[in-house]
């Protein structure tokens, strides 16, 4: 049964019936409710029930759990669910206001987990102001007979994930912690996809920096570093919660799921290592770009200095013969002017040849 757990999360499975994203439970609890369903032995139960009816049904039978999905609920829209499931006020405040760090907190008989979702923003060409990574959030309240997912942001929809889980009842039969694992696995998989796309941008910048044109600007490198920092803020704080879910026994987490949290933690470590490697690579690219700029400036200064040296010869000669003295050698000589001009040209040619041979011109 548990052997299909990873496969169920990663690979879409065909279903005869799609997930209804306009569930009638939206009406009594507000428009923030995306879906509300009861699962018994991993099978979604027929019938449309609001959250209060669904949880009473589960607790009366002592079997199954309720999964409620919300999108950016307001405090008023969330109030009914808070009272119904006895959620902790601090966790509720975080879920409504969002903009939280990834974390795992234990409140009485429920877990509160925060995930940062990320999405790669497509762009034709990286510029100094291109947005590369867009972030959102998914909060998960996990109890013994309920799981509540709260999503913030325009991406990271859990509808397809719900469909995948419903196609493999043996996974959902493990309880609410199977949904928590599936969400964590989905979020970390998105991290892997985003890092792969970011690597393409880094490769493009690196190619331009080391191309003959040398047109890779420092602004684009700094922009990539800023976006990489945003990705790091989403990924790095999640390491602690994943280690806790993978190693610490928790009443809300089925022991059979623990092994799979370890797999998610391993993937998260891989993402963290990639981000660190990207940051070091960008530092190297930036240093190489600055070195190229310095070399180009030095070459320009050498050219300028060479031409200044060449022009110093006629400047000096003309300066000498421009003095207003009556008794100056060759001043009244017929061939004085052409001789001086010839000497100037010859001297400039010799100096030019010397600089050319040394690579200054």
Protein described:
There is one protein chain. By secondary structure, the chain is of the alpha+beta class. The chain contains 12 helices and 7 strands. It has helices spanning 5-10, 26-29, 51-61, 75-85, 89-97, 159-166, 169-172, 176-209, 218-235, 239-247, 255-321, 336-357; strands spanning 33-40, 43-44, 65-71, 103-107, 110-120, 133-142, 146-152. It has a 7-stranded mixed sheet, with helices on both faces. A hairpin with a 2-residue loop joins strand 4 (103-107) and strand 5. Helix 8 (176-209) runs antiparallel to helix 9 and helix 11 packs antiparallel against helix 12. The longest helix is centred in the last third of the chain and has 67 residues, at 255-321. The radius of gyration is 35 Å and the shape is rod-shaped. The termini are far apart.
